[in-house]
Amino acid sequence: MKAVVIRAYGAPQVLKFEESPDPRIASGEVLIQVVATSVNPFDVKVRSGEMKDFVPLTFPAILGLDVSGVVQEIGPGVTRFAIGDKVFAHASQTYAALCAVKAVHLAKIPNGIDVAEAAALPTVTTTGAQLADLALTANATGTVLVTGAVGNVGRSAVYRAKHHGAFVIAGVLSRQMEEAETLGADDILPLDNENSLESLASLDAVADTVAGAVADKLIRKVKDGGVFASVLRTPRTAPEFPRVRAEYMQVKPAPEMLLEMAEAVRARNLRIPLGQRFALGDADKAHSAVEKHTAGKTVLLP
Predict the structure, then answer these.
(1) Hey, which of 75, 106, 145, 154 would disulfide with 149, CB 3.0 to 4.6 Å?
(2) pTM score over 0.85
């Protein structure tokens, strides 16, 4: 099969489009003919070596977390899927023409969602939903601030938190205030405005997607017994607030949750903006575009 292969950490040019062995499926797995995958900021960090202490690669490697496509082959023990089913998942090694996925991680694409566009959904929607769930474990209907709320993970967390019944504050940059009005949050906070940060009332939770100096300041606003959950890292100032539960979250495949979030997208209750589409062979160009923070979710098409 054709795949995007990486043999060393580095710039986008280390991504090479070449022949690679077809994946073999084991018991409980399904072979997917890939219709589309997508580029996540996480992929960029793994490729560059920024994440090598946490997610080391064994070279040669294939990157990619999202997959949408058609079931081509079914392994022993799989009963929920049939050849020809249109499916999507949060998976691994998805920058390829074929991808092996555990059936328990897989879901059928709901009617009304384009197969290629479905590749934009698994990682960001599942991450956002799991982040919101973690942040609100102490108080499901409390007040939660979602940082980076106009990002795809952030807007997914806003939707999920509102679904729980929480009072949601969308934390964004000043230039994103108008866009944030479309998210359905109860309030909007400019995170780059020091006066706004200082005047912020106490929070039951923070669902963080940006980390850095903003997160280090925001944890002081969380009530005792509250939760500061982040997909990047816990605040450096967390030891100063031992009564706040600081949690680092790593996304896990959750097909039922993915279906719930996909249904919200289909019903237009949640919007995941789509960006540029690239051929899989142009994965290096797609990574360069993501590094430049181009708008929308970048999709790769084999």
Answers:
(1) 154
(2) yes
